[in-house]
């Protein structure tokens, strides 16, 4: 039995490790017509330095009722990504939703080894949204964090969120034509 060349084994190992890392940090949503809403988080700038955020969940609000979505991204860093990432997805009852909320578990300011925990809100941070769920149509919510979510004294993290909604078909056209989402 011949031995597999070392560069080939290294490539297979690298691909395997990359796949494991991807599945641990960002889960994929179910395929097909099983999704009513996809929520993407835009990269967020930080004038105060790198910020790491750990998410506890994401909610939608219909009247006074909050419904959870499936969280796909458990943490992110302000310096980590230059593109939007899938944050959550899920099935929702047909209806109109007025807000989307982000539950934070932890926020840290600074580079690894020099970082400090920030105080995070105990309640979800809400963004007003006009999200209308219709039978058989998938909606995409783009969530943006304001530019200065860290307090001036570098003690707390209180993001102001903005949300926009598009149909999946409209989003596809925007991406193809190069329009920002």
Largest sheet geometry: 10 strands, mixed
Order of helices and strands: HEEEEEEEEEEH
- Structural class determined from secondary elements: alpha+beta
Approximate helicity band: 10-25%
Written overview of the protein:
This protein is 17% helix and 41% strand. The longest helix has 20 residues, at 6-25. Mean pLDDT is 78; it is low at 7-26 and 170-181. The protein is built from 2 helices and 10 strands; from the N terminus they run H-E-E-E-E-E-E-E-E-E-E-H. Strands 1, 2, 3, 4, 5, 6, 7, 8, 9 and 10 form a 10-stranded mixed sheet that branches. It has helices at residues 6-25, 168-177; strands at residues 37-41, 51-62, 65-71, 75-77, 85-90, 95-109, 116-118, 125-133, 139-145, 161-167. With 181 residues, it is an alpha+beta fold.
